[in-house]
């Protein structure tokens, strides 16, 4: 478990954090996140990945335990303070009204009373999210993949001029074509690295996790079952997590890639 050995004051610390929906219990989650880490959260559908992300985002109330950001209880942060330190891209990214895309991106910065750089930051964030051509459009007229890019631009804008923050993204690449997936995986990485932001991303694509993240949190049935370095040594745990065998190879750029090969026999799946 690599998250347990974090230094005394990690960027983020979960101590026995638990949430519940009626009798459905998630956690207790215990782990640490250091500044600048890139963490993929993986697991079967319904395992509790988004719930874990919402706990960290302060969007899901705790039944017990605690979450500390910079050593301070998440609940003690004011919303403006929190919004200058962590940004959240939820799985569903609809907005209620027919807003212009610039306004949706600018929503990332509403916590700033004085924001003279806003127009430039909105443009630069849109550029980085491969969405510059979508400025001047109405958000509700965009395709799913276009909306996803505008929402990604919103969280880029939110933490554009911050340092040591935390990006929480839930399936950020799901609605995008393979070319955009590669581009945006790289842009999220360069954006975060330039500012020392940590990234926690819920993903379903194991190759994206292996390619763009240093650490894998595996979630199953409401618990973190493994906390691993990204790489070939994580493959047995990933196979057990999904109940499928992976063939692996190295692509022409030297990256480890996997190909789902077949369903595992029940005896080889995680208990
Ligand atoms: N507000 C809620 N009230 C009741 N049940 C909920 C609520 N939010 C989530 N759940 C349930 O908790 C379980 C975990 O949900 P969660 O969204 O965390 O899963 P996930 O691992 O992100 O799944 P997926 O990969 O399908 O998005 C699901 O069974 C879901 O139906």
How does this model look, in words?
By secondary structure, the chain is of the alpha/beta class. It has one domain: 3-Layer(aba) Sandwich (Rossmann fold). Helix content is 29%, strand content 28%. The chain is built from eight helices and twelve strands. It has helices at residues 49-57, 79-83, 101-106, 118-128, 144-158, 178-195, 206-212, 235-242, and strands at residues 12-21, 24-33, 38-42, 64-69, 72-73, 86-89, 166-170, 198-202, 215-220, 223-229, 244-250, 256-263. The strands form three sheets. Strands 6-7-8-3-9-10 form a six-stranded mixed β-sheet, sandwiched between helices. The protein has a four-stranded antiparallel β-sheet with strand order 2-1-4-5, with helices on one face. A hairpin with a 2-residue loop joins strand 9 and strand 10 (223-229). Helix 4 (118-128) crosses helix 5. The longest helix is centred in the last third of the chain and has 18 residues, at 178-195. The model is unreliable at 1-7 (pLDDT under 50). It binds adenosine-5'-triphosphate. The site of adenosine-5'-triphosphate has 10 residues, from helix 1. Residues 11-246 form the ABC transporter domain. InterPro entries: AAA+_ATPase (IPR003593), ABC_transporter-like_ATP-bd (IPR003439), ABC_transporter-like_CS (IPR017871), P-loop_NTPase (IPR027417). Keywords: ATP-binding, Cell membrane, Membrane, Nucleotide-binding, Translocase, Transport.
